[in-house]
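Hello Y.,

Per our agreement to keep a running log of every chain we model this quarter, I'm adding this entry. I've kept the format consistent with earlier entries: sequence first, then predicted structure.
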Amino acid sequence: QFCLKLSDSTDIEVISKELVNLQPSLLLFLRRLRVINVTVPSCSPIRLACTLTGSGRRLSKNGEVQDYIVYEQQVTNMPYEEMRVGITKTRVLLAFPMKDKKPILNEQEVFAFLPIRSYGFKFIIQGDFLLTANREDINQSQWNNRIIEGLADAFVEMVTSPNIDRLKYWWPVFLPRNIANQSLKSLEKIILCKLSTKKCLLSIKGNYEEPIDLRIVPSNLMLNEKETMFSDTKPLSKEYSRTVIENLEEIGVQTETKEKFMKRLQSQTSNNPLFLKNMPEVWHERLADIIKTENIK
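Predicted structure for the entry above:
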């Protein structure tokens, strides 16, 4: 229990308001502190709590619950820093808000053990950042740059981690965009760049593939539920929701359209005169159906 004496010049109303507005996310990255009970005169008691839930944390404020999936990774080769003498490694953590097994897409704060502020991320970031003198922003430093690189590596590794299975088909909705800080803006670019060349998305056959090798193929242009009309096309898994798919173009996934379909057909027949002849009857029937149904000319 902590009991702090206030100076005579303290504005008690301001402090009371801040205490009432305390959020349980404070507890996400504090290793030993799991419960905070706040008592403010003329207000109902407040209880903030954090419990471990496998790969995540469950936060609550007076019974109102919020789940987070947490991913933690060590960052090595930290540069020399006068404020962190002798420290060559640190840890970064990412926390993704979920409810009823689906993402909650509200802006989340960036932490340096305590909250700094929101920069536009839809997931919580924790790192041992060096801060400006007023503790309201992340400063420009080699130390922070290395932490940002580590955060990008953590995000990229997280997307295919077997320990984060609940995010397997949801993580693209957390891709950062329009980040309001020059240093953290680089985190957005590094994540997108690294993911574009990583086997991070599942195909319809359940294999991880690079985004550039996958296509979003509408069912009306498919041969059947699992096969495309062209053997060199790898369709994206149908488990990804429409909300998720809207975020995939940024990392290289392309959408098959009627126009692209016909160009592919023309290319196949031009490069291989026997292409059509070698296709089975069921393929020809499906092609005729597509041309008729989609009014392709």
